[in-house]
Write a structure and sequence with these properties.
alpha+beta; 9-stranded mixed beta sheet; 7-stranded antiparallel beta sheet; globular
Length: 819
């Protein structure tokens, strides 16, 4: 029998009382933690084996797959004369299997993944995996109405071929486990058409089975009678029916024999966040069960963690606090911003068009998780909680209203940039004291008197013709057109000394697009500005400017369609992989793009070089952040690695009930921007760079002569370099990563994200597919020629409905072991 350890890295979250450190003793205290309980998740219908490495990287240790029986039919769907057990919840589409042999994985392929594919192989050996086999399409007459084992042996034809096929797999799996010495680390569990009933009661021992009311013998709920095979039913496995689970939790029932078992209760296919939380309350209210509760979920692991309270999902603005300003058109409501001003303290701007902020405390050494009592705790600040933006009151920008674009912490200073190109520097005092003549109360932001706002002039120069070969800069001539900027963002490239030094130099990279550059076929323009902190922080030198991404001719020599200006872009400058790297992300027209540049060349004013742009996915409103973690490596001492995380709105749910149970390979789905879906992608800088450069190298032969032609490699949940998925529903995300290192041990990276809440009330029927008989062999194709069915945000997994204009904070554990 497989015995799982009390805590499995990444996918088991135990809520136990822990002392809160004295780091924030002056600010707040956390409420007591709830009683001990543990919650796991099972990845449901994970039939695309190419996704397994990333599922393991995300923390999955329990899987359910759907071996579907297909009898030999001359090669239309099964070309094996002994029959096929393919992995597909729904009946497969003949045109896919016929046109693309190997499109569907087979049950035997699982053994190869377990023994040869990393990190699945290592995790199976050192931590353990549980795999439920939910057999689909099994012949209905296997036992012929008999409970005699010999009857099954004597059958011929359709039923006999299915039995021999399953027998062969069971024997091969047992031999593999023995040969690899994995009998105690990998467990197969029977489900679906393979449960041990009637003539199968003693077949395939010692494998255990799930118990589900209606498919298992009723007496198996309380009895372990070996003679009838009732001892094999050890995993309570019921649907997400709230009333059913209330009945199971009743003290008179107390989950039957399973309350004394070694397996977690298993609850399958919860559809909504509200449903998950209601079911967890039922579990908490019942008798303690040490193995805990498994949710068999179709959602991404991160989304399940957020919805179940195993991560953070906290509203930051209540109904009564929503101002009239949120009645503006949706495009005017840009969401909030977040940054960490020091360990355990987050500053959150409630709206990018306003200046109101709040400060929240948390324990940076514990995961942000509402189930463990680790919420953000707002600090009471006596003074006004609104950033002072001198000269900005009431000013408007053509095309877009003024908004705060970024918050960046530099030592004990906060640098604020606006969409109009203004910068403001603030003191962030950790203790009472005087700074530059201004008394700053505890943790109150005050404008530093010695530094003033700096205006980026954005004086455009005359354009050059379309580039041939290397990117060219503009020549300094006065333009004949009036410029209107559509977007703006900035990031800090270099800071050569502490800001407290009078001669410190700050180097900024500014990304923008205006109608001048747009008319010259430039997609994204840039300028690098060097600012001295002496002389009122106003010495300003442009060291480099020009077009970063040119629009290009396509491979057929025709001009592309008119390209809109970038709606949102975000740059992250990091020192890693042996060099300084600037990773640049942008979104336009529902697509995501990225490129890189050398930090040194940018800062030295020599950014005129060939650059490769990669179209990497779908979405809008990008935001990115980076943090460095330290790891102890024995005699090698401490090693550091920088993690970069990208979040975006209007993404695509690869993992959902619709997709996991559909007849298509999840890894082959064609994504489309889905309003309301929030996506994440994260990896080390080295893997980001490998992803970008590898894509550019593979596609070099098909590109045009233009240096910034966009290559295409869409990141999905099966990507070998990057961890990708969907984590919530909402709009306009902002992200900050922060180190969580503890002295003398491995460090980690935490994440905190804020976004506009999801306002749609999802109908229950949007969470599952209706009117479908999964075992109907004659069922017609559900998409009739389309490679993907329409997916709305609700079908991703319904989030709690939030009031219009509400702001929500999310966090979930980053799985950094394999990053």
């Amino acid at each position: 029998m497989l015995l799982f350890p009390p805590v499995l890295s990444g996918h088991v979250f135990e809520c136990v009382s822990k002392p809160y450190p004295a780091l924030l003793q002056n600010f707040t205290s956390l409420s007591p933690n709830p009683p001990f309980f543990s919650v796991r998740y099972q990845v449901h219908s994970c039939n695309s084996l190419s996704e397994w490495p990333n599922l393991v990287r995300k923390g999955a240790r329990s899987f359910k797959i759907d071996p579907r029986w297909l009898d030999f039919d001359g090669g239309v769907r099964c070309n094996d004369s002994t029959g096929c057990l393919i992995l597909s919840h729904d009946p497969p589409l003949p045109r896919l299997d016929y046109a693309m042999p190997g499109y569907y994985s087979h049950l035997d392929d699982v053994l190869g993944v377990l023994t040869h594919v990393e990190p699945v192989k290592s995790v199976a050996r050192h931590e353990g995996l549980r795999i439920a086999l939910c057999f689909k399409g099994a012949p209905r007459d296997v036992c012929g109405g008999s409970d005699n084992f010999s009857v099954a042996r004597s059958h011929t034809g359709h039923s006999a071929r299915w039995l021999r096929k399953v027998d062969a797999f069971v024997e091969a799996a047992k031999n593999m486990l023995v040969a690899q010495e994995l009998e105690d680390m990998i467990e197969f569990v029977l489900d679906g058409g393979g449960v041990p009933v009637d003539c199968l009661a003693q077949r395939w021992r010692p494998w255990r089975s799930v118990y589900m009311n209606g498919t298992a013998p009723a007496k198996a709920f309380v009895s372990d009678l070996v003679r009838d095979g009732l001892d094999r039913f050890q995993v309570l496995n019921e649907p997400a029916d709230l009333e059913l689970w209330k009945g199971l939790a009743d003290p008179k029932v107390n989950y039957g024999k399973f309350s004394d078992g070694a397996y977690p209760y298993q609850l399958w296919e919860p559809g909504s966040q509200a449903g998950i939380q209601a079911l967890m309350e039922v579990f908490r209210g019942g008798q303690p069960h040490a193995p805990g509760l498994d949710f068999a979920s179709n959602s991404d692991a991160a989304m399940f963690q957020v919805y179940a309270g195993l991560g953070l999902n906290q509203p930051l603005r209540q109904d009564g606090e929503i101002k009239e300003e949120v009645e503006k058109p949706e495009e005017e409501d840009m969401g909030g911003l977040v940054t960490i001003i020091r360990p355990g303290l987050a500053l959150i701007l409630l709206d990018r068009r306003g200046a109101e902020y709040r400060i929240y405390a948390f324990d940076p050494m514990q995961p942000l998780s509402s189930s463990s009592g680790q919420d953000l705790r707002e600090l009471e600040i006596s003074s006004a909680t609104r950033l002072v933006l001198p000269g900005m009151e009431g000013r408007k920008e053509r095309g877009k209203g003024r908004r705060i674009q970024s918050l960046t912490v530099l030592e004990d200073k906060l640098l604020v940039s606006t969409s109009m190109g203004n910068y403001f520097l603030y003191d962030i005092e950790s203790d009472n004291g005087v700074s530059d003549g201004n008394i700053c109360p505890l943790l109150t932001l005050c404008l530093t008197g010695s530094f003033k706002s700096i205006k980026s002039p954005f004086i455009p120069m005359a354009a050059v013709s379309m580039p041939k070969g290397r990117v060219r800069r503009r020549t300094p001539e006065t333009p004949k057109i009036e410029t209107v900027r559509f977007s703006f963002s900035s990031t800090i490239l270099l800071l050569d000394q502490k800001l407290s030094k009078s001669n410190a130099t700050l180097t900024l990279l500014e990304l923008y697009i205006d109608n001048f550059w747009q008319q010259k076929y430039c997609i994204l323009a840039y300028q690098v500005r060097r600012r001295q902190t002496d002389h009122d922080f106003q010495d300003d030198v442009v060291t480099s400017d020009g077009c970063l991404w040119w629009r290009a001719d396509n491979v057929l020599g025709k001009k592309e369609e008119a390209t809109p200006g970038w709606e949102v872009q975000s740059a992250v400058a990091v020192l890693d992989v042996g060099e300084g790297v600037v990773l640049i992300f942008a979104s336009a027209a529902g697509k995501l793009y990225m490129t890189e540049h050398s930090l040194v060349k940018f800062s030295a004013g020599s950014a005129e070089e060939e650059n490769c742009v990669v179209e990497m996915g779908v979405g809008n409103s990008v935001a990115a952040s980076a943090a460095t973690m330290a790891r102890i490596r024995g005699n090698r001492g401490k090693e550091t690695s920088t993690v970069v995380m990208l979040v975006s709105s209007d993404g695509f749910c690869y993992n959902s009930h619709l997709h996991n149970t559909g007849p298509f390979n999840v890894c082959e789905l064609i994504p489309h921007a889905t309003p309301g879906v929030l996506d994440f992608t994260y990896a080390s800088v080295a893997k980001w760079v490998h992803f970008l450069r590898g894509t550019c190298a593979r596609n070099a032969s098909i590109t045009s002569s233009s240096t910034s032609w966009s290559r295409r490699r869409l990141v999905n949940v099966c990507d070998a370099d990057l961890l990708h998925g969907s984590y919530d529903l909402g709009y306009h995300p902002s992200i900050v990563l922060f180190p969580t290192s503890i002295s003398g041990s491995d460090g980690g990276v935490g994440m905190l994200e804020v976004h506009r809440g999801f306002t749609e009330d999802c109908p229950e029927e949007s969470l599952t597919r209706l009117g479908k008989n999964e075992d109907d062999e004659n069922e017609k194709d559900v998409v009739s020629g389309s490679h993907i069915r329409s997916l709305k945000a609700c079908e991703c997994g319904a989030a709690l409905v939030r009031p219009k204009g509400s702001l929500v904070a999310d966090s979930f554990p980053l799985q950094l072991r394999f990053v």
